[in-house]
Design brief:
The relative contact order is 0.24. This protein has 67 residues and is α+β, with helices and mostly antiparallel strands. Strand 1 and strand 2 (18-26) form a beta hairpin. The chain has two helices and four strands; from the N terminus they run ββαββα. The chain has one domain.
Length: 67
Amino acid sequence: MKKKKKKIVEATVKVEGERVPVGIMNVQQALDMPTEDGMKFSHPDEEPGKTDVLLSRKELKDAVKPQ
């Protein structure tokens, strides 16, 4: 049985107009985080911390829904 690879994202929050990294985690951990205004997540198909493609919590959830 092939183990499914978990997608990794970077969580960031906007502080005084600047994006501040909160941490790198798998998608489920990101979706389980407390709701915070300005929270964004790197796109799960990109490299965490290396992309400026950011998604809201809803967009992240929609991006990882099974097709």
